[in-house]
Amino acid sequence: MKRVEVKTGKSYEILIRHNILDKSGEYIRPLTKAIRAVIVSDSNVAPIYADKVKASLEDNGFDVSVFVFNAGEQSKRLFTIEKMYMHFFENNITRTDIVVALGGGVTGDMAGFAAASYLRGIDFVQIPTSLLAQVDSSVGGKTGVDLPTGKNLVGAFHQPRIVLIDPETLNTLPEKFFRDGLGEVVKYGCIKSVDLFERLENQNAADVIDDIIYECVSIKRDVVQRDELDTGERAILNFGHTFGHAIEKLGSYSGLTHGEAVAAGSAILTRITEAKGFTRKGTSARLDNLLRKYDLPLNSDFTLAEILAATRGDKKSTGKSVKFIFLRAIGECYINKIDFEDIEDFFVV
Ligand code: MG
Description:
Blueprint: E1 2-6, E2 12-16, H1 24-28, E3 36-42, H2 46-59, E4 63-69, H3 78-90, E5 98-103, H4 105-117, E6 123-128, H5 131-137, E7 142-147, E8 150-157, E9 162-165, H6 175-192, H7 194-202, H8 209-226, H9 241-250, H10 258-275, H11 283-293, H12 304-311, E10 321-329, E11 332-339, H13 343-347
Helix pairs in contact: 3-4, 5-6, 5-8, 6-7, 6-8, 6-10, 9-10, 9-12, 10-11
């Protein structure tokens, strides 16, 4: 088993272990006096894994209910949160009980947000079952939902009590969603770890996925510990995301997946920053080659002008500027704020 400790306001551990789902109750029991636990899961994941987790929680003395919502980003809205609150109420969830998020990023974000707000905050646990959630969204305490006008516009910081990662769940993940997670994995290599990047170049990610999850989570832990509330360094985790979000939005969230859009966004951005002399020569070609190796897109169906126009709606914009993350080289990045009015000029090479 691999362990990563996260020292934020409330500290917690991330455990990576095959078949940890079967033992989830044993790891959760010592952390809480909860009598009841609610498993929150979607219509894809619940049929495969909810019974397993429920049985383990019951074996460890929890009274367990399961809340299932329709799989997909279109469910990540306040109307689902309200249904979740009603389920909590009907199942007598009190402030000392616990929510268990079992699923991908949408599940973790929503269950975390419901837990952050119900009765002004109850404990929750993350059991991420997608690669994207395992390497990225389950760590760091960001929770939330979308509004009709944009993704993740409403939310809260709420750290989980523990994160249980079972790499076995990746065996039931459709290929497209494995790639989705790899988009974020490549990002970690780009911003912080030339070793991880080289490993992805030299090995097949799927063969060494336990180590890759561990490395990504460790990088995210380091960044989140230094900037829990996202006021500074944490922005580097958004490398490729400003253009990526724009691409997702232009595709009405039904084109590229998040990870694919991040991959395309990082490739497009790095091509430009290298041409403009901000990034060491050869970096862009190396990134393109790696993305190609994992069948990730290097481009989108939209023009640069369309992407730039769409970045104006990005929530990471503060006041008059947008924060972009530029690579200095593979494994090294920095934050570059660009004024709204200068964006078009800057990116036209
Ligand atoms: Mg992301």
